[in-house]
Every structure is written in C-alpha cells, then in structure tokens.
Task: inverse folding
C-alpha cells in the first residue's frame, strides 16, 4: 500500500543535539592526549604542522566528490574544481602536459597504488607484477585483490631492488608490470628507472606498465637538485602520492595521476551520479581536497622547497647527533628517513617509531626541529646506558 503524504500543519523542530557533560569531558581528554602524542612524533612520515582553521566552516557541509573530478556530477555539494586545481599542481610538478594526464584525489597512498595496478592489470591481463621485497605491504594485498600473478624481487642493503635478481626472475614472453618505489617505507630507497629501462630493452620486453609508489618522496624529489627524475618524463604510467604525508592533513588523503588514455578502459557512465565511475571509491572525500589545496596555495613552490630543505637539514643533523653519540644511523641519498638499530620498546612507544626486524627509523618531517632530535638522542643514550649497567 502506498503511503499518502499527510496534510498536517505541525512543524517538526529539530533541536541541535548536545553532548552530555561526561562525553564532552571524554572528548576533551582525547584531544589533550592527541596533542601530547603529537609532540613526540618521529617515526612516521606525517607532517604534524597543520593550520586548517580557515576550513572549520566546511565541516558542516556534506561535501562529496563522487565520480570523475573533470565531470560536473548531479551531487552539487562538491569541491571538484578545487580537486582539479590540486591535480594540476601535481601534474606540473611531475612534468606531464594538461592534455595527457588524468587523476583524482584518493583516500591515501594505498588507494593510489591500487588504482595504478588496476590500470596495469586492465591493460595487460596476462602480465606479471614485479615488486621488491621491501615494498609497502599494501602492494601484496592489492595484488591479491586484483588476482595478479607476482614475482617478489630481492633487495640490496640500501633497500633498493636487486636488479640482478630481477633479471633472473623476468619472464620475457609475458608483459611486465612494475610497482617501483620512491622511496621504500623503512629505508627510503629510490628505484633506478634508467637501469630498469636498460634491462627491459636487453630482454626485448615491450609490453610494460610502470606504477610508481611515491607516497612520501613524490612531492619532495622535484624540489631537490640532482634528484632522480621520478616523473612522467620517465616511462612511468601512473604515480601515487599521499597527501597527509609531506604536505600534511588531519585525515589520510592523496592523489593518483596516470596517462589519460589508460583510464578509458575502466570508465563507465553512471546515471545515478550523473558522472563517470572511473575511481576506486564511489563517494570521495572533498574536504581533504581543500586541505591539500590550501597547503599548496599557502606554501607555494618556494615554501615547499624550504620545507624539503629543512627536512634534509634535520636528516643530516640527526645522523650526526646519533653517530657522534655512538649509535648506528644512515639514510639513502635524497631521503629524510634515518635508519637506526631498533631501540627499547619504551622508546619505540614514546616516539612512535616504526620497526622492522632489527631496525627502526626516524622520518624527519617538516615539524621536526633540533630540540626534538636532541631529546630523542639523549633518551636513546640513557636507555643504552641502563642496558649496559
Ligand atoms: C612507500 C609507501 N607506500 C604506500 C604507503 C601507504 O600509504 P597510506 O597509508 O596513505 O595508504 C605508505 C605508508 O606509509 C608507504 O610508506
């Protein structure tokens, strides 16, 4: 039976819901804890210098960037035009012409990686995905989800792919799909694309798709003199960069860019949204787009370059301080990730360090200043001393 609309004059007044004082207290307590934790944040590649006050008013809007950022969808409460500006900024940085790229704002590095490898699989369904042992854990999961055949390549001590092992494992008769790193999660190692190109040429492999996981370094390398060209002047088909890492954001976010033509394979018109479905997620976060847009506008190229220089300076400072005090500490070239021996559990917890086997790392992000490094080195020395006693 169909319900008929009732002709009633009663007006429903919706009160603004309020938190109980107990819940308000709980929330205040959480805020304090998170602020305190942010003061000892050395182990993950997240920029804790955030200034997003101007965006507070957007939190009460139901922003959703569903669909293709370049098509006006039926869902009008969106930031698609700002998303396109953010993508244009990254496209410029990664040296790909306006007519040649497509991309979208993701919910982080993992989604961007999934997108790149999805396009790779759609282009070469009989391809083999090659990636190194020290690749981010998301790639194993993505390969599983996409049902891709894989070969895992050994690494050398710097964390880079062992190209000899790659040569042994390459199958010349099948398309070669790659996830390359710029840089690796634990050691910040950067792939050598010219070397890979030489190997592929020698083996006569022409059906190739290269996705680059540039979660942290994707935005940093373009600002470093002499750094490897991790951009579309190399034979890269897609690049994923996290937004919350170097630029920083209060929520995970990122971008993925790819060659325009490869997207047409997965594009479908969807009447429900009045746009094309060519992203991984349906509903997409349009608020984080504003956070990225604002960082880009506020810092500009010169501000970002200064932040990159600061990170590299702090990296050298941390290595000097640590080695002066008798600790092992090193970093790859063009990297702000300092590899150290795994410290005590108490220090790992306090400084929120990522560990893997016998190593840990510090990631010298824009919020890290010398006094924080000094404090960490002092505490590391004290725990070593107490172990020796
Ligand atoms: C190299 C690399 N790729 C991908 C990711 C995943 O990024 P996200 O956590 O934004 O999904 C990370 C996260 O640390 C990473 O280090």
Result:
């Amino acid at each position: 039976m169909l319900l008929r609309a009732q002709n009633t004059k009663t007006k429903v007044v919706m009160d603004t819901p309020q938190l109980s004082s107990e819940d308000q207290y709980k929330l205040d307590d959480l805020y304090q804890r998170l602020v305190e934790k942010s003061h000892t944040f050395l182990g993950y590649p997240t920029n804790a210098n955030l200034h997003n006050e101007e965006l507070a008013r957007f939190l009460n809007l139901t922003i959703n960037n569903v669909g293709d950022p370049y098509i006006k969808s039926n869902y009008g409460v969106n930031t698609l035009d700002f998303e396109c500006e953010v993508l244009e900024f990254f496209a410029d940085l990664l040296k790909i012409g306006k007519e040649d790229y497509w991309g979208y704002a993701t919910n982080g590095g993992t989604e961007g990686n999934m997108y790149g490898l999805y396009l790779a699989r759609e282009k070469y369904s009989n391809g083999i995905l090659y990636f190194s042992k020290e690749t981010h854990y998301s790639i194993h999961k993505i390969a599983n989800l996409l049902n891709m055949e894989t070969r895992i390549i050994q690494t050398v001590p710097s964390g880079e792919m062992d190209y000899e092992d790659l040569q042994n494992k390459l199958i010349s008769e099948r398309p070669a799909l790659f996830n390359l790193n710029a840089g690796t999660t634990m050691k910040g190692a950067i792939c050598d694309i010219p070397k890979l190109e030489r190997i592929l040429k020698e083996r006569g492999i022409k059906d190739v798709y290269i996705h680059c996981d540039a979660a942290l370094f994707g935005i940093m390398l373009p600002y470093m003199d002499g750094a490897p060209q991790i951009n579309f002047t190399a034979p890269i088909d897609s690049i994923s960069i996290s937004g919350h890492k170097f630029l920083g954001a209060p929520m995970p976010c990122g971008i993925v860019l790819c060659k325009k033509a490869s997207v047409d394979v997965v594009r479908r018109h969807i009447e429900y949204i009045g746009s094309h479905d060519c992203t991984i997620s349906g509903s997409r976060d349009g608020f984080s787009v504003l956070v990225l847009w604002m960082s880009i506008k506020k810092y500009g190229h010169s501000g970002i370059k200064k932040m990159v220089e600061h990170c590299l300076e702090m990296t050298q400072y941390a290595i000097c301080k640590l080695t002066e005090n008798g600790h092992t500490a090193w970093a790859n070239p063009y990297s702000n990730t300092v590899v150290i021996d795994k410290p005590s559990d108490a220090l790992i917890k306090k400084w929120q360090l990522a560990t893997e086997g016998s190593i840990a790392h510090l990631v010298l992000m824009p919020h890290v200043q010398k006094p924080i490094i000094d404090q960490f080195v002092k505490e590391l020395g004290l725990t070593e001393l107490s172990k020796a006693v």
